[in-house]
Amino acid sequence: MNDNKLSVDGVRLHVTPPAGDGDPLILVHGGWTDHRTWSALVPLLAPSFRVVSYDRRGHSLSERGPGPSPRRQDEDDLAALIEALGAAPAHLVGSSYGASISLGLAGRRPELVRSVIAHEPPLTGLSPQAAVEAQFASVQDQLAAGDVERGTRRFFEEVILGPGAWELVPEHIRQAAVANAQTFVDLREDPVATELDVDAVRRFPGPITITRGEIGPAWLREVATVTAERLGRPLRVIPGAGHSPHLTTPQAFADAIAEATGGDALRAAA
What we know:
The protein is of the alpha/beta class. The chain is 40% helix and 16% strand. The chain contains 11 helices and 8 strands. The chain has helices at 42-45, 71-85, 97-108, 130-144, 148-160, 171-179, 182-188, 198-202, 218-231, 245-248, 250-260; strands at 5-8, 11-14, 23-28, 49-53, 90-95, 113-119, 208-213, 235-238. A hairpin with a 2-residue loop joins strand 1 (5-8) and strand 2 (11-14). Helix 4 runs antiparallel to helix 5 and helix 4 (130-144) crosses helix 7. The longest helix has 15 residues, at 71-85. The chain starts with a strand and ends in a 10-residue tail after the last helix.
C-alpha cells in the first residue's frame, strides 16, 4: 500500500492515514457515501483506537471494478485492508450496508475481527420488508433512467432518513451520494446483498453489538432488532439518532462504540 492506496483484486482503494495509536478500528461506510461521512466521529475515537477509514470499491476516490461487485467482494476488500495494515484482529464499525459487510466478514474470517459494531444493517433477508423492497426497485428504475440527483434525494428522504432530511445532509456528502449512485444499482444486482449466514456469525467468538437509532424509519429499527435477536447479540439504541448517528449524534455513537468494545466513554477534546 502506498500513496494512501491499497491495490486489491484489480482496483485501488483509497485508505485514510491511521488516526490514533490504540487498537486498530476500521470504519466501514454504507452505500452512496465515502470515508468523509466519518469526519465527526474519528476525533472522538482516535484517543482510544488507531482509526482507519476508506472508500469502498466504486465509491469516490476508490476505483471501480469491471462490473458490479457483490457484497462478498466488499468483504474480501475489507479483509485485504486489515491484512495490509497488519491490523488483525481489528474492531469493525459499520454503518448501513457497511454493517452488513462487517457482519459478513466476521462470519467468514473471524481471525481478522476483534469485535463488530453494526448500525442498522439493511438485512431485509432476515426481516422481509415488502414496501421497502418496492421503494428500492422504484429508485433503481429512476437511477437507470438517468434521473440520478432526484433518485438519490428520494432514496435519502423516502427510504433511509425521512422527509426533509436531504437538505440537512452536509453538502459534500450529498455530492458524494449523487456521484456514487451507481453503487446502489450494483448492490441491487447481488442476489444475497440483504442476506446473512446467521449460523456463521453466531459462531464468531468476539463481541458483536447491533445498534439502531431512537428515531428514523421504522423498517430500519425493525430489521436491526430482528438481526440482534437472530444473532443472539445485544441491541443498543443510540439516543436521539436515526440512520446516521456518526453525523447527527457522534458523541452518543462514540460512547456506544466504547461500551461495545469494553472501553470507557469517549470524550471530545476540550
